[in-house]
Amino acid sequence: MQGLTASCKIVLVMFLLGLGLAGATADSRRRHISSSPDEPCKKMTLYLHDILYNGVNNTANATAAPVTKPTDLSTTHWSNGTFFGMLVVFDDPVTEGTALPVGDEEPAARAQGFYFYDKKESYSGWFSFSLVFNSKACRGTLNLMGADPMDAETRDFSVVGGTGDLFMARGVATIRTDATEGLFYFRLKMDIKLYECYV
Ligand SMILES: *[C@@H]1O[C@H](CO)[C@@H](O)[C@H](O)[C@H]1NC(C)=O
Ligand SMILES: *[C@@H]1O[C@H](CO)[C@@H](O)[C@H](O)[C@H]1NC(C)=O
Ligand SMILES: *[C@@H]1O[C@H](CO)[C@@H](O)[C@H](O)[C@H]1NC(C)=O
């Protein structure tokens, strides 16, 4: 959790300038906007593990499940169906390293939301989810959304907002497929750079 501890809670030493207006309970965080894409105000790298329900024997392990069937458009008319129209809901563990949490080890965060497949000719998805941080080191959310054309080596999701320790954060998450196991597991590497932070 060390990296995250450092990255989630950036605390600037603020000098309260008298006047008695800023008491001990006042929130002294101020908005910081980066002046260049090379200088995010906060960076973190996290791994999202999606373990899809295989319909057979991974009920306990699965963290994602299709909630709709793909449409006939992709499955009947194409021999190589691309799941067009299928919606998957997930509550995925998110870690700082590549390994899945072992036993009752707490993940750094959970990714809660959905993706759906949105192209009949090739694998392409669209994601919308919250990264939910709920540890002593970091409490709050980052909310991400964006297109996932899976053939591209990297894709960018927008970080559209944040709450808690990540109050009002905005930025870009660059996504890379880091590992796959057949059809039922993938790991995404997320390089998250925030360009607007309250610290
Ligand atoms: C679960 O089922 C899959 C395919 O149906 C099989 O390859 C795998 O070995 C099974 N795993 C367990 C733990 O039984
Ligand atoms: C599926 O098949 C169609 C028609 O043969 C082809 O145009 C398309 O590229 C294929 N898609 C994938 C993901 O292989
Ligand atoms: C859970 O799923 C992951 C990803 O497929 C796999 O590596 C792991 O062995 C599974 N664990 C159990 C207990 O089946």
TrEMBL record:
GO biological process, any: phenylpropanoid biosynthetic process
Gene Ontology CC: apoplast
Main location: secreted
Keyword Secreted on entry: yes
Record localization: Secreted, Extracellular space, Apoplast
Listed Pfam families: Dirigent
Keywords: Apoplast, Secreted, Signal
Signal peptide (residue range): 1-26
PANTHER family noted in UniProt: DIRIGENT PROTEIN (PTHR46442:SF17)
Record text on subunit structure and interactions: Homodimer.
Homology family: Belongs to the plant dirigent protein family.
Functional summary from the UniProt entry: Dirigent proteins impart stereoselectivity on the phenoxy radical-coupling reaction, yielding optically active lignans from two molecules of coniferyl alcohol in the biosynthesis of lignans, flavonolignans, and alkaloids and thus plays a central role in plant secondary metabolism.
Protein name: Dirigent protein
